Amino acid sequence: MTTLFGLPAHALLVHAVVVLAPLTAALEILCALWPSARRRLVWLVLALAAGVMVLAPLTASAGQWLYDQSSQHSPILEAHAERGEWAKYFALGLLIVAIAQTVQHVRESRSEAPNRVLSIVVAVLAVVVGVWATVGVVFIGDSGAQAVWGERQ
């Protein structure tokens, strides 16, 4: 995918990832730390994580196409292109956490007693992956913004 509505696809897709990845991360952390939220939001979080998993590689691919259109690359643009590859990994991490939370939810809904070990492991994983994904989006976006609008003074 190279263009959408006459615009570079990367410029449009990136906004979805920039919004959905941190939102998904925040909801996963919320669901990990607050069981009532997990009962209400687990299926939404799974859908969002699946969406991020689809959008991240599409966005990176569209970004690679845009990168290949130029013959001259600044160091910050090269850094942005390298960092853009991170999105695939944090998208996978968000999806794994969402699946783990869904399994946790299904297990808890079938039995009265929650599994403490599973709850702790999923909570730690959600916080680590959530922070990693959010920081990753910030670093990728910062280098992209600097590549487009110039380095900060």
TrEMBL record:
**What top-level branch of life does the organism fall under?**
Bacteria
The UniProt transmembrane annotation reads 12-34, 41-66, 86-106, 118-140
Cite the InterPro entries for this sequence: DUF2231_TM
Family matches, as Pfam families: DUF2231
The alphabetized UniProt keywords are: Membrane, Transmembrane, Transmembrane helix
The answer to whether the entry has keyword Methyltransferase is no
On whether Membrane is a keyword of this UniProt record, the answer is: yes
- Tell me where in this chain the DUF2231 domain is found: 6-150
Its recorded name reads DUF2231 domain-containing protein
User: From which organism does this entry originate?
Assistant: Mycolicibacterium arenosum
